[in-house]
Amino acid sequence: MLVIDKYAYSNRIVKWSPKIKGLLWLLGIILAFQPIILIKIVVLAVVIWHTLYATKMSVRVYLHWLYAILPFLLLSVIGIVFTMSPKASQIYYPIHLFGSYFGVSKVMLPRGLRLGVQVLTAVVCTYWFALTTPFQQIILMLKAVHMPALMIEETMLMYRFIFIFIEACEQIYRAQKLRLGYRTFRLSIHSAGILVKMLFQQVMTDYQQMVYALDAKLYNGEFKVGEDDE
Amino acid sequence: MIELEHVDFSYEKNHPILKDISAKFGENGSKVVGIIGPNGTGKSTLFLNLVGILKPTSGKILVDNQPINYSKKGLNQLRQKVGIVFQNSDQQIFYSIVKDDVAFALHNLDVPKDEIKQRVNTILRELDISHLKDRPIQYLSGGQKKRVAIAGILVLNSEWLLLDEPTAGLDPDGKRRMVELIKHLIDRGQKVILSSHDIDFMYEVCDYFYILQAGHIVKSGQKETVFDDEKALLKNKLDQPWLVKIHQKLHLPLYANEAELFADKTLQAKLAKLE
């Protein structure tokens, strides 16, 4: 079960219009990418505070969600900030290596940090949107910005079936693990292969049954989405 | 009435699933037909034949004296007359929100929006799931999902409702509510065909039975007589309903359901004397 989904349906601002939330998200992204660093940091703090307030989530849980993206962010910043240079003066804490100097570049450090804050702010804004907007409202928003119907249909069906797929995957994985299928690296690879194969087979049989059910409900090739008011 | 005349069905040659099935569902005013049989005897295959998803390899199926018309238009009409709810709810719920899913079949029929709204609300109220209207499907319990799946078909107002293993995987509460729901549907005139191997459940709700064994109908009859022969039932990997057992073995009267037994005042008086 995707816990992130639960917050989206039961937060303090769930009743806000999805259009307003969409616009606020856009505003947040714009502010994250504008040049003044102080504004970015203010936005970052305010949005984190508001996410915690709206979802009644504990700081620990929130940080837990952030861990998912922190490694990528850190790696990018490290890649930008560390450099080799022939002159020791261009580098903080230079280390002499193979005739040149390795360390944190004096020019790149502010840039790297700025980029880090920028990305973090944008991510935090997106989390705010994802954690406070139920899927139904996202669909309404996609409709409001005139996304193609096919894409909206696809999004909807994916959202419906991803839970069933994840659950099936978890069940097989658990059953394998209980019988020591992931004891060593070699076994893990082998078991993972079986898992993928089984999931594929299941998808095929489930598909057949879905076709029957669609038939019974007079499916004519179109899923109407978001016909209703909010 | 749904009539089967010598229906055979097989997915591949020499592997018949249904063999020479003849039956008249809805004959003599029976409103709740039970198809019972152990796992893998072709109950679900029979259902798929009844709604025209599968076509008999030989024999005929007549709905209201008309053979099924397998053209797209004919099948469309058939499915408005005969609705089917499958065993696995997850595979027949396509939308993520309850009310959207219940409305699906009506959207497919191009029913006007206001009417859809009204019919969906009526059905949700009838099945006692109005409070789930805006809920995401993935947070519903098994019994609730089953109700949503049934609502999605009932909304078509079809004359017949086919329920494949409606109690599979339900807890006692879910099962009890399912019995109540089916009884309620029958009271308002819905004709129902059920398939299951849950004998006590079937005895409680159905009035006419067909016993299926390896693709054959081995016995059919009224509720009062069809479970007479315990040995034959056991041989067919089934069992006698417990109310029939106490009737045969303890010589109590044959009760139609549990409530009737516990409401029997003369029995209570007799039992009181024993003490």
Automatic annotation (TrEMBL), chain B:
GO biological process, one term: cobalt ion transport
CDD domains xrefs: ABC_cobalt_CbiO_domain1 (cd03225)
Record-annotated ABC transporter domain positions: 2-239
Family matches, as InterPro entries: AAA+_ATPase, ABC_transporter-like_ATP-bd, ABC_transporter-like_CS, ABC_transpr_CbiO/EcfA_su, Co_trans_ATP-bd, ECF_ABC_transporter_ATP-bd, P-loop_NTPase
Topology within the bilayer: Peripheral membrane protein
Cellular component terms (Gene Ontology): ATP-binding cassette (ABC) transporter complex
Keywords, in A-Z order: ATP-binding, Cell membrane, Membrane, Nucleotide-binding, Translocase, Transport
Subcellular location per the Swiss-Prot or TrEMBL entry: Cell membrane
UniProt GO MF annotations: ATP binding; ATP hydrolysis activity; ATPase-coupled transmembrane transporter activity
Statement: the UniProt record of this protein carries the keyword Disulfide bond: no
Family note: Belongs to the ABC transporter superfamily.
Entry function: Probably part of an ABC transporter complex. Responsible for energy coupling to the transport system.
Protein name, as recorded: ABC transporter ATP-binding protein
Organism: Secundilactobacillus silagincola
